[in-house]
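Hi everyone,

Forwarding the result from last night's run.
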Amino acid sequence: MDPSQKARRHFLARLGQGVALAATGGTFWSYLLTQQATAGVFALRPPGALAEDDFHAKCIKCGQCVVDCPYDTLKLAAPGDLAPIGTPFFEPRQIPCYMCPDIPCMNACPTGALTGLERIEDARMGLAVIDIENCLSWNGLRCEVCYRVCPVKGRAITTEVNPRKLSKHAMFVPIVHSDACTGCGMCEEACPTEEAAIRVVQPRLVQGKIGEHYRLGWKIESKITEEFKFEPRRSPAAKKRPGKPAEVPGLDYLNQGEP
């Protein structure tokens, strides 16, 4: 083969390899950028983490919070994880946050990406959500594991008594209260079902918003709501008798007019 033809063929082969490598790299980079753009939505951050945008602005991915976590709860995200690469996060089903009173991970942060907590009970790392279709207690079995392991038991998770459909015995079903749930994930880690029936997620993924134009007057103490406090209405028969007025059942302040 002519040396010039051989060199030309070698050049074309190398060129083809370069094009293939560039295409592969571009595809991977595109996937990586897409994954990174959506990963932060699902990431559970260490206690004291700022709002996601502010957290990214301050977090320098130094890993000091990971090093100082005594339970190996925290880890730095790798490609494909549920958090942008290099940022700290945790997966409760594997290792939850064990609520260290001195909050060593937050105190180790050099930039203030983790800050603002005086008590670990005030952390809001996520929100526990119960899948009532697969929760043992909601299916009539006695469990309540999530309630018992909750570090703020009685406030973040309470149990409610519900009647069973086929039995006279009561069901003690767990209820999560968003105002007290720290998102530590101990409930998810301890859940005995094959796939956890209680999961900790970012609150914005599951919580709605009622809207500021709604006014729940019965939850507000003011001069206006005091005017609408219910006063028992006297029945026509009771009006003719002295003494304590008899209440007419089923009436509220909208139905207190004369019959």
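Residues 3-39 form the longest helix (37 residues).

Cheers,
N.
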